[in-house]
Design a protein that fits this description.
alpha/beta; TIM Barrel; eight-stranded mixed sheet; 11 helices; 38% helix; disordered N terminus
């Protein structure tokens, strides 16, 4: 990989925003982080005090423009040029909602998706969003732009199916009615374009604020059961991203005594969810996420620092074989 030097320095991502290619059940997975174009470069939910456990919505400290994001796309193309022809799963982030035109104008997203259609092995394009932005029109436009023969997946931070934890403790402001509207929009597009054209990915927070060591497992499994049930009832493909809770700067402020989730808890949850998913068609994929744009203040703790932990999680993400997590 080499670096393009002709673009503005502010368009280059910080090192903490540069994800290395990894593998998941689709093949090579590559996340790309674009700048947020909302005022202050921050997710509007973050600025109103929502999502109390998460620092990602703070953005990169500056408001982006479409031109800066176009230059970032050029930089990505050069930096990742050796691996891009082999990427099967591309994940698009922008410190908020990619589908919110305040944070990423639709015209710019169209340009980015047009570029993704040039990637020869690409199968899946995932886009991080909030449920309120997933209208039938926006979902259809993006699914069509991804192209025939590829799947568009919306990534949504459900975190927990416990309404009190999600909306009161975490302040997600995500009622069931909003989730239902999003699912209906994706289902309608999937029915119209083909069942392989649109799907959902739910983020599940393991051991998040409001849980205790005694109920971490039950909360995560109930959330997985809820998310997979959505897919089963709507006839949609649903993947799950499992995220062990860590204390970010904001998390330390709001939840100073909430401990970091342990690798052992993640292994127990992942093993149970694999069994649950195998009996809940259509087939779902799991991904354990342990990189989060440098916001994890506890990543160097001994139980997470061990190379064996990282290797086991990488192997699980690639194979979906829960037995590799037994070492945790």
């Amino acid at each position: 990989m080499s670096e393009e030097t002709s673009i503005r320095p502010s368009a280059r991502p910080a090192d903490r925003l540069l994800f290395q290619p990894v593998s998941d059940r689709y093949g090579i997975r590559l996340p790309l982080v674009f700048g947020n174009q909302a005022p202050g470069g921050q997710c509007p939910y973050f600025t109103t005090g929502n999502c109390r456990h998460c620092d990602i919505g703070a953005g990169e400290g500056t408001q982006f423009t479409s031109e800066l994001n176009r230059q970032r796309l050029v930089w990505f193309q050069e930096y990742y040029r050796e691996v891009l022809p082999e990427v099967r799963h591309l994940v698009l982030y922008n410190s908020g909602s990619v589908l919110n035109p305040r944070e990423m104008p639709a015209s710019l997203l169209d340009e980015i998706l047009a570029w993704t259609r040039t990637l020869p092995d690409l199968q899946v394009v995932s886009l991080e969003t909030r449920e309120a932005m997933a209208t039938q029109d926006s979902v259809r436009r993006v699914a069509e732009a991804v192209g025939i023969g590829r799947t568009m997946r919306l990534v949504v931070g459900l975190e927990t199916s416990d309404d009190q934890l999600r909306n009161q403790v975490l302040a997600k402001n995500m009622p069931r009615s909003a989730i239902d509207r999003m699912v209906a929009a994706v289902r309608s597009v999937s029915n119209d374009l083909g069942h392989d054209r649109a799907g959902l990915t739910f983020n599940i927070l393991i051991g998040g604020p409001g849980t205790t060591p005694e109920n971490v497992f039950d909360d995560a499994l109930a959330t997985a059961r809820f998310a997979l049930g959505i897919g089963r009832d709507a006839g949609l493909s649903v993947d799950l991203n499992l995220h062990p809770y860590y204390r970010s700067a904001r998390g330390r402020e709001y939840f100073p005594v909430q401990a970091r989730c342990s690798p052992r808890a993640v292994a127990a949850v992942a093993s149970a969810v694999v069994r649950l998913a195998s009996s809940s068609p259509p087939r779902s994929g799991l991904y354990i996420g342990i990189e989060d744009e440098g916001h994890d203040h506890d990543f160097s703790t001994p139980d997470w620092r061990a190379d064996t932990v990282h290797r086991a999680i990488e192997e699980f993400n690639r194979t979906q074989d829960a037995s590799v997590l037994e070492c945790l």
